[in-house]
Write a structure and sequence with these properties.
By secondary structure, the protein is of the alpha/beta class. About 35% of the residues lie in helices and about 15% in strands. It has 2 domains: about 325 residues, TIM Barrel; about 70 residues, no CATH class. The chain is globular, with a radius of gyration of 21 Å.
Length: about 425
């Protein structure tokens, strides 16, 4: 079980790559290591590393390796996201993919070949570093493929699958045997018709990644202290496991944070601890990586308000109450490591008219399935999730430890619940 943080540099945010200062990086990572965390997730800015389709800047790659070495000196593993892509509401795409040179990120053969070369280069450069965990293709790159993005790069689910397989293979070519994966936002699980599917998330790559953000309607419906809010991350972990062919496939809670005002600052520490403990009650959880390490300096303009204060540390590198809360949970777990018991009761996810799989709107906050899961969780049931096709398969149920199933329509909902979908 790994406990880590998504590294957001305290000086200049991700623009630090323009004025890379290894001493600043070391100063950022010292308190992360002192907190007892064991890994960071790192975000090179794609346009700065590959400014031309056939140019991957050697100096930028060297700086990434230097950052990884600084992390190793502090006992920190490093996972690297390649295609940035999208970060905190800002898009960072190379000029050779936009405007006059616009190429579809997912279907244009030269663009895909260039992305593969870039990811292979990063992976190969890090392949001999013992603390290099592996590559994530990019941060929530799925959001480019569909609305509500203002200029989507449209692709079908089949085209997305081909893109994922090609780029994951490139990472493996660069660094064989490391943990290479892909990651999307919750549109993967909640947005009907989205071309990045739950099957892609739970079937491709070394493990499944989930990103949990309660500003998606969960906190608005259930409050900052509601069981559905504090267990939203655990819900996504369990929802993802329903789609995995391998019942022991690991899941990485790769992003989760306490966004204000949905989670008031006065409650951030309690939310952090409750979220982490709920996730640790899920079997086959590989790790928990908090978003993020440092607050965004308010001298930087135009971020959505909630993005400024998500750090475990201030922009001045002082630990905040949420940092201490996460450190306590990690220390408790390491003092008494355990495997959670199987979740024996599973909520059945039925197919619907959207297609061969379940209707994703039902899984989103306010959907009948989501609200039924939340109601069961509030009663202390510890619900798992099982697809309807697997609920009738004794071997499949037994492999996951499921002994009882319940359908959403059988779960009474609180009167305040607002159901849609």
């Amino acid at each position: 079980m790994r406990f880590g943080v998504n590294y957001t540099p305290s000086r200049g945010w991700f623009h630090h790559w323009l004025d890379f200062d290894l001493d600043e990086v070391r100063a950022d990572l010292d308190p992360v290591a002192a907190l007892g965390l064991d890994h960071i997730r790192v975000f090179p800015l794609w346009p700065l590393f590959q400014p031309n389709r056939t140019l991957i800047r050697p100096r930028a790659v060297e700086q990434l390796v230097a950052l990884a070495d600084a992390a190793r000196e502090r006992g920190l593993g490093v996972s690297v996201d390649g295609l940035q892509g999208h970060l905190s509401s800002f898009d960072f795409l190379p000029s050779w993919t936009t405007t006059w040179h616009r190429r579809n990120l997912f279907t244009d053969p030269p663009a895909v070949a260039a992305q593969a070369a870039y990811l292979r280069t990063l992976a190969e450069a890090l392949s001999d570093r013992p603390n290099f965990l592996g590559m994530t293709l990019g941060n929530e790159v799925n959001q480019f493929a569909d609305t509500p993005h203002p200029a989507p790069h449209r692709a079908t689910a089949a085209q997305v699958e081909a893109w994922l397989r090609r780029l994951l293979a490139a990472c493996e070519e660069g660094a064989p045997g490391r943990t290479h994966l892909h990651a999307g936002d919750d549109a993967t699980w909640y947005l009907p018709g989205h071309p990045f599917t739950p099957g892609h998330a739970a079937g491709l790559g070394a493990m499944t990644a989930v990103h949990s953000w309660v500003f998606n309607g969960t906190a608005q419906r259930h409050g900052a202290a509601g069981p559905a809010t504090e267990q939203h991350a655990a819900y996504l972990v369990e929802l993802s496991k329903a789609w995995a062919a391998d019942p022991e496939r690991p899941v990485w809670l790769q992003e989760v944070g306490a966004p204000a005002p949905h989670i008031p600052a006065s409650r951030a520490a309690a939310f952090t601890a409750a979220t982490a403990r709920a996730a640790l009650d899920c079997t086959h959880l590989w790790g928990l990586t908090w978003w993020c390490s440092h607050d965004v300096d308010r001298s930087l303009a135009d971020f959505p308000e909630l993005e400024y204060d998500l750090g475990l540390f201030t922009a001045g590198r002082a630990p905040k109450p949420a940092a201490h809360a996460l450190a306590r949970v990690a220390a408790e777990y390491r003092a008494d490591p355990h495997r959670p018991l199987p979740r024996t009761t599973a909520l059945v996810l039925e197919p619907d008219a959207e297609g061969p799989g379940p209707r994703r709107t039902a899984c989103a906050p306010g959907g009948r399935f989501f609200e039924a899961w939340a109601a069961l969780a509030a009663e202390g049931v510890r619900p798992a999730v099982v697809l309807a096709r697997d609920a009738e398969d004794p071997a499949r149920r037994a492999a996951r430890g499921i002994t009882a199933t319940v359908h959403p329509g059988e779960v009474p909902l609180p009167r305040r619940a607002m159901i849609q979908g």
